Amino acid sequence: MKAGLKIAGLELRHNVFLAPMAGVTDLPFRLICKELGSDLLYTEMINAKALCYEDEKTRSMIKIEKQEHPVALQIFGHEPEFIAEAASILNDHDNEILDINMGCPAPKVVKNGDGSALMKNPELAGRIMEAAVKASRKPVTVKIRSGWDEHNINAVEMARIAQNCGISAIAVHARTKEQYYSGSADWSVIKAVKDAVSIPVIGNGDVKSAQDALSMLEKTGCDAVMIGRGAQGNPWIFNEVYRYLEYNEQVREPSPVQKIETVIRHLELAVQIKGMHTGVVEMRKHIGWYLKGMKGSAKIKNEINTLYRFEEIKGRLLSYMDELNVLLDT
């Protein structure tokens, strides 16, 4: 199955993308995923109103490095005027695509009327998308969920509204807001959306391997696959999926040594970009994901959670690598 996709005028080489994840898809992680095979990268979701008010932290979150391209910068909000202003601001930014989040289920987001709360208000969602398309000189895409709950599955309705508003592509996380991240994704919703619109449809939900990606593409007819939690601690999944789809190749799972080397590389980037304290603290969850399932990893993770300097953590990881090599040799 040949990869590749066109979104508006943007030609993409692959159809395997990194999903936007709050607190996860920051610049250091995106750089790692790009190095390991992801094509289109999505940023963490950015508060449109905070961007308009020139919030310093928000401004730091939209930084894009040249080696990342192409990048979809995701914004969220429920006020069309702020979405439009944010789109205008980002016309002169480095991202190739502007994406609107209408799927985040986090309570603190939903209670403000943002994210997946918009699944309950298609009329407002339409006005937001229309405002963004009018203000943006770049392709505008949107990410939605199946619906609010099992009794309100309206992804097809939202997709049709999106297409009518001039949205260039739509990503569907095949879970409801009420499911959060539990249960199984219902890929039939992705298929229903694909059958209902002519714009590209990106499938999301429960893709944890190359076989999962192929299965989603075949069962739903979607144009691309977006990987979120399946990439946590496993950024190699992008190359694995691409090689399988493009060449029918089975890529060997990374060795413990490769994993630890990548952890150190990721940690180094985090400290360089965010400073020692923030970089180390924010890396703890990533380290836990990378080491999950490795022999003795629980003890190592607990030890690392007490350390605050790059060299200390690097040293402990290297000694853990030596311990693993001894175990493998015995």
From TrEMBL:
<dbReference type="InterPro" id="IPR018517">
    <property type="entry name" value="tRNA_hU_synthase_CS"/>
</dbReference>
<dbReference type="Pfam" id="PF01207">
    <property type="entry name" value="Dus"/>
</dbReference>
<dbReference type="InterPro" id="IPR004652">
    <property type="entry name" value="DusB-like"/>
</dbReference>
<keyword id="KW-0521">NADP</keyword>
<feature type="binding site">
    <location>
        <begin position="20"/>
        <end position="22"/>
    </location>
    <ligand>
        <name>FMN</name>
    </ligand>
</feature>
<comment type="similarity">
    <text>Belongs to the dus family.</text>
</comment>
<dbReference type="InterPro" id="IPR035587">
    <property type="entry name" value="DUS-like_FMN-bd"/>
</dbReference>
<feature type="domain" description="DUS-like FMN-binding">
    <location>
        <begin position="18"/>
        <end position="310"/>
    </location>
</feature>
<keyword id="KW-0820">tRNA-binding</keyword>
<dbReference type="GO" id="GO:0050660">
    <property type="term" value="F:flavin adenine dinucleotide binding"/>
</dbReference>
<comment type="function">
    <text>Catalyzes the synthesis of 5,6-dihydrouridine (D), a modified base found in the D-loop of most tRNAs, via the reduction of the C5-C6 double bond in target uridines.</text>
</comment>
<dbReference type="InterPro" id="IPR024036">
    <property type="entry name" value="tRNA-dHydroUridine_Synthase_C"/>
</dbReference>
<keyword id="KW-0819">tRNA processing</keyword>
<feature type="binding site">
    <location>
        <position position="74"/>
    </location>
    <ligand>
        <name>FMN</name>
    </ligand>
</feature>
<dbReference type="GO" id="GO:0017150">
    <property type="term" value="F:tRNA dihydrouridine synthase activity"/>
</dbReference>
<keyword id="KW-0288">FMN</keyword>
<feature type="binding site">
    <location>
        <begin position="228"/>
        <end position="229"/>
    </location>
    <ligand>
        <name>FMN</name>
    </ligand>
</feature>
<dbReference type="InterPro" id="IPR001269">
    <property type="entry name" value="DUS_fam"/>
</dbReference>
<protein>
    <recommendedName>
        <fullName>tRNA-dihydrouridine synthase</fullName>
        <ecNumber>1.3.1.-</ecNumber>
    </recommendedName>
</protein>
<keyword id="KW-0560">Oxidoreductase</keyword>
<feature type="binding site">
    <location>
        <position position="143"/>
    </location>
    <ligand>
        <name>FMN</name>
    </ligand>
</feature>
<keyword id="KW-0694">RNA-binding</keyword>
<dbReference type="InterPro" id="IPR013785">
    <property type="entry name" value="Aldolase_TIM"/>
</dbReference>
<feature type="binding site">
    <location>
        <position position="173"/>
    </location>
    <ligand>
        <name>FMN</name>
    </ligand>
</feature>
<feature type="active site" description="Proton donor">
    <location>
        <position position="104"/>
    </location>
</feature>
<dbReference type="GO" id="GO:0000049">
    <property type="term" value="F:tRNA binding"/>
</dbReference>
<keyword id="KW-0547">Nucleotide-binding</keyword>
<keyword id="KW-0285">Flavoprotein</keyword>
